Amino acid sequence: MKTFERIGKGALLVTEGTLKYIQFECLNEYSDILTHCMSTRAGGVSNGECSTLNLGFSRGDIRSNVISNYNLICQAAGLEPDSLVLTNQIHGNGVCLVDENDRGKGFNRTSDIIGIDGLYTMTPGVTLTTFHADCVPVFIFEPGIKAAALVHSGWRGTLSDIAGGMADRLAGLPGYEAGRSIAVLGPSIGHCCFEVDEDVYCLFREKYDNDRYYKKTLDNKWKVDIKAIIIKQLTDKGFEKRNIHDCGICTKCRKDLFFSYRGDNGRTGSMAAFMQIKPQGASDEKRI
Ligand SMILES: [Zn+2]
């Protein structure tokens, strides 16, 4: 049995046994054609710093445990593990269009998707998968043409405008309208906790020169509002502000529920974000 609890802004914490994951209300409106979720750290089989639902193969975890964790989250979310396409994430701004030929890449077979931090598709039955432990997951859905995109935007990716780059690529799809697109900024490190030294602050200030993105701390460091910058990147590409939803959940403040790279001093597991255009004729039993 699944239970649903509101968390943050427009987000639901779904609990099924010990497994917990996040869904977003604005995307659930399209649950007849779209499956999406973001995992938490709860409900898996991994131990130690990867306790328990680690989905990262490069976190020092036992591979069979990671596979078991995928099977658990996929079953709960109504996704076929064979349909997953994984990014390999280098904190860059490379994005890649994927289709049915890419199913399983990086998960159960070797991948040629290399140096990629964002995936997008118009093909039903292909599950976009990105990894996060503080870095911002940006879920994008254009309901008119049924296109889905997922972006991993950490501070380096944000600085190199991966969200804007993804918007440019989506704009190349026939019939695409930015004004129709919905974006969700999932659980990630918030302005409350994302602190950097002067050098990184200067890199941001040079590109995004607006006082409201920055707060100086008492010990002369800077807090940067990464999510506000991503929202600007998307509105610059024609997204409507009202269609961009920041769930407002900070992974470091809620490290009880989420893996947090900074909250756990770099020794932590990885969550994953998932998005799939449902295969045609899929039953809607999984709707909530
Ligand atoms: Zn915080």
Rg measurement, Å: 18 Å
CATH architecture: 4-Layer Sandwich
* Helix-strand makeup class: alpha+beta
At the fourth CATH level, what is the homologous superfamily?
CNF1/YfiH-like putative cysteine hydrolases
Mean of residue pLDDT? 96
Any overview of this molecule?
This protein is an alpha+beta fold. It has one domain (2-277): CNF1/YfiH-like putative cysteine hydrolases, CATH 3.60.140. The protein has 6 helices and 16 strands. It has helices spanning 25-28, 63-77, 155-159, 162-170, 198-207, 226-235; strands at 2-7, 11-16, 19-24, 34-39, 84-86, 95-97, 118-121, 127-132, 136-142, 147-153, 182-185, 195-196, 214-216, 222-224, 244-246, 271-277. Strands 1-2-3-4-16-8-5 form a 7-stranded mixed sheet. A hairpin with a 5-residue loop joins strand 13 and strand 14 (222-224). The longest helix is centred in the N-terminal third of the chain and has 15 residues, at 63-77. The chain is globular, with a radius of gyration of 18 Å. It starts with a strand and ends in an 11-residue tail after the last strand. Bound molecules: zinc ion.
